[in-house]
Amino acid sequence: MSNTAQSAASTRIASLLDANSFVEIGGQITARSTDFNLSAKETPSDGVITGYGVIDGSLVYVYSQDATVLNGTVGEMHAKKIARLYDFAMKTGAPVIGLIDCAGMRLQEATDALNGFGEIYMQQTKASGVIPQITGIFGTCGGGMAMIPALTDFTLMEEKKAKLFVNSPNAIEGNEISKCDTSAAEYQAKEAGLVDFKGSEEDVLAQIRALVTMLPANNEDDMSYEECTDDLNRVCKDLANCAGDTSIALSQISDNNVFFEVKADYAKDMVCGFIKLNGSTVGAVANRTEIYDAEGNLTETMDAVLSARGARKAADFVKFCDAFNIPVLTLTNVTGFKATKCSEANMAKAVAELTYAFADATVPKVNVIVGKAYGSAYLAMNSKSIGADMVYAWPNAEIGMMDAKLAAKIMYADSDAATINEKAAEYATLQSSVESAARRGYVDTIIEAEDTRKYVIGAFEMLYTKREDRPSKKHGTV
Questions:
Q1: What is the SS3 string spanning 288-310?
Q2: Mind telling me which InterPro entries this protein's record contains (predicted)?
Q3: Does 104 map to a domain?
């Protein structure tokens, strides 16, 4: 490495990559500008270490900002090093990992630094959907620098020292950092939904390693497959009890119970993450009504409804999976839409984005209805009508327009209670039962909950060679 070898920036690279695998690129580069006496200052590697190495044997490109050099600020050569790293990554088809610790734009270089930011944005945009992009934030990431994690696929953040903001908390009218630290990992993970994982520096680096092993190297070559050591026909005996907390259900059906959840603190009513099925990575999306802690205690309950935040969270995740040819599995349990004034302002657009994401995705798509599936909320959750290749349902599933008793009350508004109950039972049998949906072809197979793993594995194996043509167009507009 360069003469920044003992810095936190280089230590992070060493901790992230396989031992002794890092090869530095551009280690001798320094700042080119001489304005404002900049030439009198030492600028080793111009404040960013760039190069390549391997994670679990897979090639990755890494840049790590060095806050000991001009506070890690981005100048002309700093930006060019990152942009050049993207060139290498695009040519070889490997992920880019950015380790951020930066005070922002280098004031001494002004327009050169500003142009450098634009060059990085351009490289990120061209790489989007071609190679995975991952950001780890360990120090300051503010102003224009905040666009960099937002342009990547996954963002992980150190939970105590790291700061992520466009406007600093004290610059927001009516706010100060003591009242609401909008730059903190907690806020960015729970409220903004930009951060996928927060934890200690060691945890963040470990999670980046785990994420890389789950993802393909690029949008053409699937390097994420590994040999399955789990029983493909394994019976998941208690799976029916996990219909509420579907994060547990997903880990139950995954090979060796592997589940990498993303944005776990944001829109908790929707679970998104990666599982392994027969050694292959599968993207999973699931409605959730309960949350249990590690000791098995129920900590939170939610209605079985779609929220605007949950819909957008799932839509973004499905788009990523489709871009990188990762099959998608859904576990569906939804009765309608969240009914609050705040949600209503964003609901239609958010659900439209989710519907579009599923309908537009051409990867193999499998849906398992584990509870209720009512109305347009169900349609948005990877229903057969918007393109699910295979739809399974557990025996207790309910599929229809709405709750049977509510439907009976609407249809027989002036009737007595006995009539309402009679018609509700009739409606449940004729219109809302899983058998009724299966007879119409909206459900392919009714399966026992404990057999879910073997059925979804079989479905994805059958769909492995799926090809689907769509109308020729530049891109959609939703």
A1: CCEEECCCCCEEEECCCEECHHH
A2: AccD/PCCB (IPR051047), AcCoA_carboxyl_beta (IPR034733), ClpP/crotonase-like_dom_sf (IPR029045), COA_CT_C (IPR011763), COA_CT_N (IPR011762)
A3: yes
Say if residue 298 is in the same domain as residue 246: yes
Q: What is the pTM of this model?
A: 0.93
> 336-357, pLDDT tens digit by residue?
999 999 889 999 999 999 999 9
- Gyration radius of the chain's alpha carbons: 25
Mean residue pLDDT across the chain: 92
pLDDT digits (tens, 9 = 90+) for 45-54: 888 999 999 9
**How many Cβ atoms from other residues are within 10 Å of residue 148's Cβ?**
22
List, for residues 404-459, the tens digit of each pLDDT value: 666 667 787 777 777 777 766 766 676 668 998 999 999 999 999 999 999 999 99
Q: What is the DSSP letter of 319?
A: H
Total domains in the fold of the chain: 2
Q: How far apart are CA 144 and CA 276, in angstroms?
A: 36
Of 213, 244, 275, the residue that ends a domain is 213
Q: Average of pLDDT values for 15-27?
A: 96
DSSP 192: I
73 shares its domain with 161: yes
| Residue 117 host element (H or E) | helix 110-127
Map residue 101 onto helix, strand or coil.
Answer: coil
Residues 6+ away with beta carbon under 8 Å from 363: 321, 322, 325, 326, 327, 328, 466
Contact 330, 369 (CB under 8 A): no
